[in-house]
Each structure stands twice: as C-alpha cells, then as structure tokens.
Amino acid sequence: MCGWGEMQWNNGGTYRFVSSRVSSNVFSRRGHWDKDSKHGFGIQRWGTGTKWEGDTYSGNWEHNVREGCGTYIWNNGDEYVGEWKDGMKEGYAVFRLSNGNV
Questions:
Q1: What is the fold, at CATH topology level, of the domain defined by 5-96?
Q2: Domain segments of the chain: what residues?
Q3: Dihedral sign for Cα atoms in the order 41, 46, 52, 56
Q4: Nearest 5°: phi and psi at 18?
Q5: Would the pLDDT of 79 be above 60?
Q6: What is the pLDDT of residues 22-69, one digit of tens each?
Q7: CA atoms of 60 and 58, how far apart (whole Å)
Q8: What is the rounded CA–CA span in Å between residue 60 and residue 41?
C-alpha cells in the first residue's frame, strides 16, 4: 500500500504515514517507506512510555536503520548532528550539550 495518511490515538498521539505500517512505540513519523520499512528521509519522534520518550531523529534511513546523515535530539536538549552507519553514530559529527557546550 502507499499514500499519505494520519492516525490518532485516544491519548492524543498522532502518526502520519506513507504506508499502512504502524509502530506502537512511535508518537509520530513522517517520511518515505519502501516495502513496509523506513527508507529515505524521515522524521521520527518517540512517544510516552518508550525508552526514547521525547527524542527525535531527522535524517536518512535504509530499511529501518539510520544510515547516512542525520540529527538526533534527546529530550534533554542534547544534540548529535552527523553521520550514521548501520544504525550507529559513526564518522564526522558535532555533539552539542543542552548547555551549549560542543
């Protein structure tokens, strides 16, 4: 299946998608999908009750894995802007703490 859509849960969470695949631990995700996996550019925010509550990732995905350039912002304001390989931070990057230190 393909096309844009939006799903809302009773707790106020919203999920915008380009496929019928929905992940229960995601507060919201916008981006490209290929064969029911995150692929290409996307923005994902994790919702309440998850290990990554309030965190955001904006960047490239390759079949559900962060790959290439992307920005990860923790809910405390710390930020990683840089390269990803096989879902791990790797390569050139800048890590900024919420207090402004780099």
A1: 2.20.110
A2: 5-96
A3: positive
A4: -120, 20
A5: yes
A6: 455 555 667 777 776 777 888 888 877 778 888 999 999 888 899 999
A7: 7
A8: 4
